[in-house]
Amino acid sequence: MNKASSPQFLNGRLERMKGAESVKPIGSILDGHARVNVPDVEDVTAQALHITPGETDALQKLAPCIGPSPRRALRFLNVYRLIKASLKTEDIKALDVGEYKVLLTLLAIAMGTPVCFSQVLKSLANTSGSCAMSDIKSLTLYKQTDEFRAEYKRFGEILDIYTGMVSKQKGGSKYRVEKYTGIIQRYSFDG
Questions:
Q1: Contact 117, 191 (CB under 8 A)
Q2: pLDDT band of 83, cuts 50, 70, 90
């Protein structure tokens, strides 16, 4: 995929998910001779799996930086949904008011630039206090070597996208960067 087709592919997957959310579940099934009641899926649907318009926009903006494979774009979406589904209610509320931009940006860094993400993790382990998203670039051991030049370029692109997403946003940038990097580390098996 190229940079234009990544957001299109992701948008198609998101549209298919919306269609699946509207399917009505079966109320009960027959298991052998006994009838087994299955709870109505609408009662147990995790609201966390719902992707908001803001999240959709951020996913589409960051998708080109993940890599050229449709599999990578789909993994980006699915890992985000898994992380979101694992969060507590108060954490989901924080995402709803804008922290999804931080989480998605950090996830894009982990998936699109694993060397940079490993460096961020190492630096965070040695840092005391909280970290702002504006500090992320300084947490990498930025070395312009030929081997990692393309990855550092993507890393810069991801941070530029984040800056564009939050440029008109009011409020501070002291989000839970350490918490999100720890969660992403569990799901990305990195660091």
A1: yes
A2: very high
